[in-house]
């Protein structure tokens, strides 16, 4: 195994294996990926890796044997670290007893009870496979409960029609669905008011990520509840990222606010496909009645076994204290470097420390994401994966954070040397495409 800093790590991607694999993938997989944010449009071709081979702890190895510090962590689910032994053992132990059955399995109840005991306001739980499943189920429940159709939202909530129709990639979503979903700005009650006031008594729910690029102000969180009550809408927290990451009880515990329905995914099961909609019996009981939310794989037990093991490790090892501490060290190191190199107005790490977001204000926005692409290129050359989200895991050690912070410092120093006109010439591959265009 090669270590970070080995000279091989700074070589260009070898044309043979990666390029051949990519050509094969492009022939049989549209976009060569199942997940747009992981695919080739999101990595500087020729420099950053394209295909993962395996991963362990805080590291990912690409198919060419190069080792990287992983910070996107598969877009967030890997909270304990890759291939965590307790989770792997739990999956192996369950595997010989079957994966999914003709009848419900007791693990569904056991894990639901664990979640109820950890999440503020939780009384009942329904499981599914993706975050999109959970948010779509919550929206359907809210529409059924309120007998209204409109949804106000802030953040990303998955690929299903109700949400994606209101983004810059709405193709294929009927106009009748698109016009029911209304975006508002985070930490901005005026923008929410403007949306709600435009269609009085028509909103079923206010759906939002309770933290993202920024943490919420207490005024914003309090105001959300007030607005939901005043307008007769449900408040739905999409905790697909924040859940089990900011605290065992998610954003609700961290910020001391309770929503009406909650959606979880990602960190819930350290990478196994599991999501959950959670809430009080008075709302969750709609799923016993005529709100249909049901899938073949909902009670699949390898994911539930992984979830039980993940929650156990989180409780026993006080994972969140470490995630915050190390996350804050990285966040502040990035901001210190940005300021030291004169990029304090251009590059900022913000948000909740267990998942901080690095934003880049491009010097020439019309040219695309030049600076962001350059940062990714330089970090890749230094053995660090960058997609803008720094997800801490329990296996990122203090020394790892120091090495990653050093890599950021060098990358930002190099960027400062090219700012503002020299960046394009220093790129070894095409500029990264945004997943969604800015509104
Ligand atoms: N909500 C949030 C906040 C998310 O970040 C995501 C995924 N990035 C989703 C929902 C959708 O989850 P999934 O991709 O598992 O469907």
Describe this structure in words.
There is one protein chain. The chain is of the alpha/beta class and about 450 residues long. It is built from 14 helices and 13 strands. The chain has helices at about 15-30, 85-95, 105-120, 130-145, 160-165, 175-180, 190-200, 220-230, 250-255, 280-285, 300-315, 320-340, 370-380, 400-420, and strands at about 50-55, 60, 65-70, 125-130, 150-155, 180-185, 205-210, 235-240, 260-265, 275-280, 345-350, 355-360, 390. Helices cover about 40% and strands about 15% of the residues. Helix 12 (about 320-340) runs parallel beside helix 14 (about 400-420). The radius of gyration is 22 Å and the shape is globular.
List the helices and strands and how they pair.
Layout: H1 15-28, E1 52-56, E2 59-62, E3 67-69, H2 85-95, H3 106-118, E4 124-128, H4 131-146, E5 150-154, H5 161-164, H6 175-178, E6 181-183, H7 189-198, E7 203-208, H8 218-231, E8 234-238, H9 250-255, E9 261-264, E10 275-279, H10 281-284, H11 301-316, H12 319-340, E11 347-350, E12 355-360, H13 370-381, E13 389-391, H14 398-418
Parallel strand pairs: 5-6, 5-7, 7-8, 8-9
Antiparallel strand pairs: 1-2, 2-3, 4-10, 9-10, 11-12, 12-13
The structure holds 4'-deoxy-4'-aminopyridoxal-5'-phosphate (PMP).
Summarize this structure briefly.
By secondary structure, the protein is an alpha/beta fold. It has 14 helices and 13 strands. The longest helix has 22 residues, at 319-340.
Defining key terms:
439 residues, alpha/beta, 7-stranded mixed β-sheet, 14 helices, 38% helix, globular, disordered N terminus, binds 4'-deoxy-4'-aminopyridoxal-5'-phosphate
């Amino acid at each position: 195994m090669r270590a970070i800093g080995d000279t091989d790590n700074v070589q260009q991607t070898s044309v043979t294996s990666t390029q051949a694999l990519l050509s094969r993938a492009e022939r049989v997989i549209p976009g060569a990926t199942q997940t747009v944010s992981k695919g080739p449009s999101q990595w500087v071709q020729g420099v950053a890796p394209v295909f993962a081979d395996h991963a362990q702890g805080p590291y990912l190895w690409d198919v060419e044997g190069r080792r990287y510090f992983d910070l996107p962590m598969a877009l967030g689910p890997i909270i304990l670290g890759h291939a965590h032994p307790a989770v792997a053992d739990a999956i192996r132990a369950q595997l010989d007893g079957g994966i999914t059955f003709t009848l419900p399995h007791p693990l569904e109840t056991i894990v639901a009870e664990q979640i109820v005991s950890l999440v503020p306001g939780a009384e009942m739980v329904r499981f599914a496979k993706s975050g999109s499943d959970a948010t779509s189920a919550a929206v359907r429940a809210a529409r059924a409960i309120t007998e209204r159709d409109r949804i106000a939202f802030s953040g990303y909530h998955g690929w299903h029609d109700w949400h994606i129709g209101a983004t810059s990639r709405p193709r294929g979503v009927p106009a009748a669905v698109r016009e029911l979903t209304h975006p508002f700005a985070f930490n901005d009650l005026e923008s929410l008011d403007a949306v709600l006031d435009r269609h009085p008594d028509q909103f079923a729910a206010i759906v939002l990520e309770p933290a993202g690029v920024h943490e919420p102000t207490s005024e914003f969180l309090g105001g959300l509840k007030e607005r939901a009550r005043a307008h007769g809408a449900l408040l739905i927290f999409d905790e697909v990222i924040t859940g089990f990451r900011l605290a065992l009880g998610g954003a609700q515990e961290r910020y001391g606010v309770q929503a009406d329905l909650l959606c979880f995914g990602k960190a819930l099961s350290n990478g196994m496909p599991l999501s959950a909609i959670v809430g009080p019996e008075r709302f969750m009981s709609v799923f016993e009645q005529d709100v249909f939310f049901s899938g073949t794989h909902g009670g699949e037990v390898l994911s539930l076994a992984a979830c039980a093991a993940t929650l156990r490790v989180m409780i026993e090892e006080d994972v969140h204290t470490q995630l915050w501490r190390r996350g804050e060290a990285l966040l502040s190191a990035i901001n210190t470097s940005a300021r030291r190199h004169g990029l304090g107005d251009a590059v900022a790490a913000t948000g909740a420390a267990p998942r901080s977001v690095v934003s880049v204000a491009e010097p020439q926005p019309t040219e695309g994401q030049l600076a962001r692409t350059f940062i990714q290129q330089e970090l890749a050359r230094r053995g660090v994966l960058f997609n803008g989200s720094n997800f801490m895991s329990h296996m990122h050690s203090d020394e790892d954070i120091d090495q990653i912070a050093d890599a950021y410092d060098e990358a930002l120093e190099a960027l400062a040397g090219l700012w503002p006109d020299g960046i394009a010439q220093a790129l070894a591959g095409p500029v990264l495409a945004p997943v969604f265009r800015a509104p």
